[in-house]
Amino acid sequence: xxxxxxxxxxxxxxxxxxxxxxxxxxxxxxxxxxxxxxxxxxxxxxxxxxxxxxxxxxxxxxxxxxxxxxxxxxxxxxxxxxxxxxxxxxxxxxxxxxxxxxxxxxxxxxxxxxxxxxxxxxxxxxxxxxxxxxxxxxxxxxxxxxxxxxxxxxxxxxxxxxxxxxxxxxxxxxxxxxxxxxxxxxxxxxxxxxxxxxxxxxxxxxxxxxxxxxxxxxxxxxxxxxxxxxxxxxxxxxxxxxxxxxxxxxxxxxxxxxxxxxxxxxxxxxxxxxxxxxxxxxxxxxxxxxx
Length: 291
Fold this sequence. Notes:
Layout: E1 7-11, E2 32-33, E3 36-37, H1 38-48, E4 53-58, H2 63-68, H3 73-81, H4 85-96, E5 99-104, H5 111-116, H6 119-122, E6 127-130, E7 134-136, H7 142-153, E8 156-162, E9 172-180, E10 183-191, E11 202-210, H8 213-220, H9 231-239, E12 244-248, E13 253-255, H10 259-272, H11 277-288
Parallel strand pairs: 1-4, 1-6, 4-5, 8-12
Antiparallel strand pairs: 2-3, 6-11, 7-13, 8-11, 9-10, 9-11, 10-12
């Protein structure tokens, strides 16, 4: 019997040092894209794909993440008294859209270690992993496509996107062979290779569907690149036991841990808004026409 994926793990324990000083007193995941924190886009993506249970892996100074997805009765009362019905409904929707649980990673030992912390909560079920830095536009349909592929093949599956050889050193990198449209079979995977030795131009992006076998591998996983427990290394071990697939896509991903990509995401999402897009586009066109 094929198992469906209803649980997701969102690692959100990083310090966000690339966005200092903005992240000195607030989590990087709470930085806004227009008027919504980045982490909310990630949770909404999971919910839209059918996820009903989310475990967020947090660390110190991440309390505002929990507060954001919790009820705020004082705020709700204020909005109700002011007759701000639309805002009130939105605040309640955020708190009620999915069951969210929280656990602290404790020590920053890498992505693989963060995923391992989720073992008891996930149990013996397949689960999704969504990195909080990666925003996937709904038009790309990445997570939905990955879940569909998992249901057909019942194997772990990793999101892959072609990047330049210069960029590949910042990502996990997979060699693969085609299986069907948008789906490949991974034959090798390495963490942040030198561009000259990279097995391909397919970079591992921040979406995974993993079988519970990954937890047994992570328990024994030795530190890898950067002295951390790398999820990529554990996935490489799975290649020899269960096999791992890749889901390829080319657009719709924003790395909000990168300043330029963060700005691009803000601009593109603002332009798509009915309430902001026309005026914002006019402003940009006027600004860009100046000498």
